[in-house]
Design a protein that fits this description.
The protein has 116 residues and is an all-alpha fold. 79% of the residues lie in helices and 0% in strands.
Length: 116
Amino acid sequence: MSDGAEVHHQHRDVTGGWLRPSVFCAMDGLVSNFALIAGVAGGTTNTRVIALGGVAGLAAGALSMAGGEYVSVAGQRELAQAEIAVERRELHRHPDDAVAAGVTFGVGSLIGAAGL
């Protein structure tokens, strides 16, 4: 510790997950497209029109979800970069604390790996 005082700072969880949004998007896309096809089929019996409506809904849904995912990932990336900047500032302000934290983490990892 550089000045004898213990320094604490917290980081937000920026990892995110991929399974939950993937399942949600797949289910949302299936339900939405089914509802669209059912609506078109309720208005006409022409199978080409029904198929065209389904394909158009599929394309629109895919583009919409791709755009939403891009915005989500871009926001997550910005958040991760902000957290890295916080850590860099803390490392610059308290380099001795960084060494102590690294040693503590390394020793803890070795003890955990040894099963002690």
